[in-house]
Structures are given as structure tokens and as C-alpha cells.
Write a structure and sequence with these properties.
The protein is α/β, with parallel strands linked by helices and 181 residues long. Helices cover 32% and strands 23% of the residues. The chain has a 7-stranded parallel β-sheet with strand order 3-4-2-1-7-8-9, with helices on both faces. Strands 5-6 form a two-stranded antiparallel sheet.
């Protein structure tokens, strides 16, 4: 039984995230956590636009927020986001893989918080962010999806995760949406 969904994306991610989140039902009954590599100042408007286009409540995460079902938490630019004891925690530890926020920090914390009850998704983007976090989710018993090469702007992040052996299924964004629902 899935108790949380976590998504990581970079180059080309906003369009795909809109497509996926838009299809999630109002009563998903679990929280959704997103790291989209985006600079400070852009994640708030990104979350607001997604909120206006989604049945779920979408917010730019703030330190200390309680995690609630049917809410999508977007990591703010220039902050790493983690989940600890049912709360969102933000920090500014050094960049990981050259980025902050980093999907690895979020995914590792979600694995610790939810164990094997996580559905993780790695989407289009440069580099290898997310693969180590996905490994944590797999080791805890969670399930991992990756966006297929054909629909990625850049296949770096999903490609690295696939080559690392941590991905259960490689799917198009439409099929990812269906799988989540």
C-alpha cells in the first residue's frame, strides 16, 4: 500500500510535472513530494500555477509544515527538502550533484519516513540526482518508475537511475500518471 509519492525532475520537468499532477484525483489520500531543479524565486510561482491547474492542493514547502494527505509539496529553490516525523524540513547544506534542492536528500528521507510504502518517480533532467535516493526507496521495499527516453528533454537522471538498476518500470508520462492513480 502506497503511503507517499515522490517525484524528482530537472530540465524539461515542469511540463511533465504539470501533466502528471493534473491527472491526480482530489482524494488521492496521500502526500506528494516534488523536487524540481529550479532557482530561488521560481518555485513559488511554479507551485501556484500547478495549484490552479490541479485537483490537489499544491504548495511551495515551508520549514515545519505538517505533512497532509492530498497535498503536493514543492521544494523551494535553494533549499533541500526532507521529511522528518511528519513534518517538512528545509536546510541549506551544500549543493549535491551541483543542485539545491536535490532529489536524493528528499527521496532518502521519504524512504526513512515511509519505508516500503513509497512510489518514486524520476523524470527528465541532466545529471544523476535521484539515483541514490531511489536506491534507498528500493532497499526499503518501495517501487520506482522512470520516464522513458523518448519523452525526455534530457534522459540523464532517468537514464542514470535505469543503468543503476533501481527502476522497476520505464514509462511515458501518461502511463506514469495512470500508475500513480
Amino acid at each position: 500500500k502506497v503511503k507517499a509519492v515522490v517525484l524528482g525532475a530537472s530540465t524539461g520537468g515542469p511540463k511533465v510535472l504539470f501533466q502528471i499532477v493534473r491527472k491526480m484525483p482530489k482524494e488521492l489520500n496521500l502526500p506528494v513530494f516534488i523536487v524540481q531543479h529550479m532557482p530561488k524565486g521560481f518555485t513559488k510561482s511554479f507551485a501556484e500555477r500547478m495549484d490552479g491547474d490541479s485537483a490537489l492542493h499544491v504548495v511551495e514547502a515551508e520549514d515545519g509544515m505538517s505533512v497532509e494527505n492530498n497535498t503536493v509539496y514543492v521544494a523551494p529553490g535553494d533549499f533541500h527538502m526532507v521529511v522528518e516525523s511528519g513534518k517538512i524540513r528545509l536546510h541549506q547544506k551544500p549543493k549535491l550533484h551541483g543542485v539545491r534542492p536535490a532529489a536524493d536528500f528528499l527521496m532518502e528521507s521519504v524512504a526513512r519516513s515511509y519505508g516500503g510504502h513509497v512510489l518514486a518517480v524520476i523524470l527528465t533532467g541532466m545529471g544523476k540526482d535521484g539515483a541514490a535516493g531511489l536506491m534507498s526507496i528500493k532497499e526499503a521495499g518501495g517501487y520506482v518508475l522512470a520516464q522513458n527516453r523518448e519523452t525526455c528533454v534530457v534522459y540523464g537522471m532517468p537514464g542514470y537511475a535505469v543503468s543503476s538498476g533501481v527502476v522497476d518500470e520505464v514509462l511515458s508520462p501518461e502511463d506514469i500518471s495512470e500508475r500513480i492513480v
